[in-house]
Amino acid sequence: MLVVEGLTKRFAGLLAVNNASLSVAEGSITGLIGPNGAGKTTLFAMASGFLAPSAGRVLFTGEDITTEAPHRRARRGIARTFQIVKPFAGLSVRENIAVGAYLRHPQRAETLASATLIGERLGLGPQLDKPAASLTVAGRKRLEVARALATEPKLLLLDEVLAGLNPAEIRDILPLIRAIRDEGVTIFLIEHIMQAVMTLCETVHVLARGEIIAVGPPDMVCADPKVIEAYLGPGAAARLNAAEAPRA
């Protein structure tokens, strides 16, 4: 569904993403992991049209969309959430979701009806008429996903949607992510919580220093020496292997 080929992004002298290529299969939950500052959100921003790449291209369902604006990509069926959640504080929860729903439903009554259904689906039913500013962190995360889903996407990019949640809140939201995929939305997610990555993802791409260094099933990727060293530093894989080796 999504293919990025040789994506590169330079900010003056900083090479944030360097010749990164990956693909996201239709109907999958695919992960993008890596240390802080690896370039993950920059890659997401290029895939969704919020940043223009310095080089490379983006394909969606086989068509080159590299130069398309975010709203045109949204029309095609690409939606994303943002790492820093910023709802429209002066609007109700229902109205926030309706902002996304207007993309497909131009009539207000139809838009609000769609927003209501999506809000209930995301567990926000009791809060629909409350100000968005009154929501907890977990509620704002759900609202961010609901607003993106209201655009009726084919591909949903989730940028650290679990960040800031406690273990119980994470446990509650994981089934929602699976349910979204099971209802026909392909998911590409950035996540630092490895338990969630291991539970949700079929394929994981690892970005370090702007480059893709590993790809595969999550258990295989997490055991890759290059990945271990990207997170823990040079020599970490050898030290872990030595520590785990049976003593004579």
Which descriptors apply to this entry?
single chain, 248 residues, alpha/beta, Rossmann fold, six-stranded mixed β-sheet, four-stranded antiparallel β-sheet, 24% strand, ATP binding
SSE blueprint:
Layout: E1 2-11, E2 14-24, E3 29-33, H1 40-48, E4 55-60, E5 63-64, H2 70-76, E6 78-80, H3 93-101, H4 108-121, H5 137-149, E7 155-159, H6 167-182, E8 186-190, H7 194-200, E9 203-208, E10 211-216, H8 218-222, H9 225-232, H10 236-244
Parallel strand pairs: 3-8, 3-9, 6-7, 7-8
Antiparallel strand pairs: 1-2, 1-4, 4-5, 9-10
Helix pairs in contact: 3-4, 3-5, 4-5
Structural commentary:
The chain has 248 residues and is an alpha/beta fold. The chain has a domain at 2-82 and 153-244: P-loop containing nucleotide triphosphate hydrolases (Rossmann fold, 3-Layer(aba) Sandwich). It has helices spanning 40-48, 70-76, 93-101, 108-121, 137-149, 167-182, 194-200, 218-222, 225-232, 236-244, and strands at 2-11, 14-24, 29-33, 55-60, 63-64, 78-80, 155-159, 186-190, 203-208, 211-216. A 6-stranded mixed beta sheet has the order 6-7-8-3-9-10, with helices on both faces. The protein has a 4-stranded antiparallel beta sheet with strand order 2-1-4-5, covered by helices on one side. Strand 4 and strand 5 form a beta hairpin. Helix 3 packs across helix 4 and helix 3 (93-101) packs parallel to helix 5 (137-149).
